[in-house]
């Protein structure tokens, strides 16, 4: 759900609120996902989501 919300343009704090997570938990989850995807910056992360996970936006 986190990736779908980020791909939809939600800010991290909004995403956390929608998922009933603290901002720190949301940041930690994002960092974990970024490590698994081997991306280092938020810009690379957003680009990865847009390019490779575009199907998230169609649901």
What's the N-to-C terminus distance?
A: 11 Å
Overall geometry:
globular
Which percent range fits the helix content? 55-70%
Poorly predicted ranges (pLDDT <50, ≥5 residues)? none
CATH superfamily: Winged helix-like DNA-binding domain superfamily/Winged helix DNA-binding domain
Count of alpha and pi helical runs? 4
CATH 2nd-level architecture = Orthogonal Bundle
Number of domains: 1
Instruction: Provide mean pLDDT, rounded.
Output: 88
Structural class: mainly alpha
Sketch the topology as an H/E string, one letter per element.
Answer: HHHH
**CATH class group:** Mainly Alpha
The CATH topology label is Arc Repressor Mutant, subunit A
How many strands, what sense, and barrel or not for the largest sheet? none
GO molecular function: DNA binding
InterPro entries: Sig_transdc_resp-reg_C-effctor (IPR016032), Tscrpt_reg_LuxR_C (IPR000792), WH-like_DNA-bd_sf (IPR036388)
Keywords: DNA-binding
Domain HTH luxR-type: 1-53
Provide an overview of this structure.
There is one protein chain. The protein has about 60 residues and is mainly α. It has a single domain (about 1-59), classed as Arc Repressor Mutant, subunit A. The chain contains four helices and no strands.
Describe the structure using short key phrases:
59 residues, mainly alpha, Arc Repressor Mutant, subunit A, WH-like_DNA-bd_sf, Sig_transdc_resp-reg_C-effctor, Tscrpt_reg_LuxR_C
Itemize the secondary structure elements and their pairings:
Blueprint: H1 2-7, H2 12-18, H3 23-37, H4 42-52
Helix pairs in contact: 2-3
